[in-house]
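User: For my dataset I need records formatted as: sequence, then structure tokens, nothing else. Please produce one.
Assistant:
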Amino acid sequence: MRGSAPEAATAPPVAAEARAPAELERELRALRAELESLRQGQGRLTRQVESAAVPAPVAAAPAGTEAPPTGARSAEEERAAAEEARKERLMELDARLEAAVQTEARDTTWAGPTEDKLSGAFHAPELVGSHLTRVDCRTKLCVLEVEHDTPEARAELLMSLQRSAGIRGAQAVIRPAGDGTRLASRVYLSRPGERLPMKSHP
């Protein structure tokens, strides 16, 4: 009987190299740090994509307000300045006319008959709705104070007065008068051929 060869002894599996617990802990921390870094990078990329896709919201104006168009504010300021300048010119005009009435001497040969003619003109049908309360003539001009029943009567006063009084070649200016409680006007009327002192002298 042939003797059988003894079977080769099988080598035991090589065991994995044992690692120290401290080394495993360091590796675990490194992996965790890398994972956190990857998460942060992914978050940044996500925010960049979202910001590129969605436009930034525009702040809405409060309800009931509209942004003024370009140049609107300067145009409004220009209109206000022009209106203020116009008021100042009218105040200067009123002051010059009133000063002339107060300082001018009275020419009785012209003033008396002219006052009668102007008073009589307010009885004409054209001047119905306007009532003469005072007339004062000097040498080159007259001042009349008139009350009106309607704005239309005031608007037609000068044309109707010149037509009814038969005044030709005279200058006339109508200005608001009174304290605002009634519709009244002050009329400055020049002597025919004369000019109202409407410009300041140098």
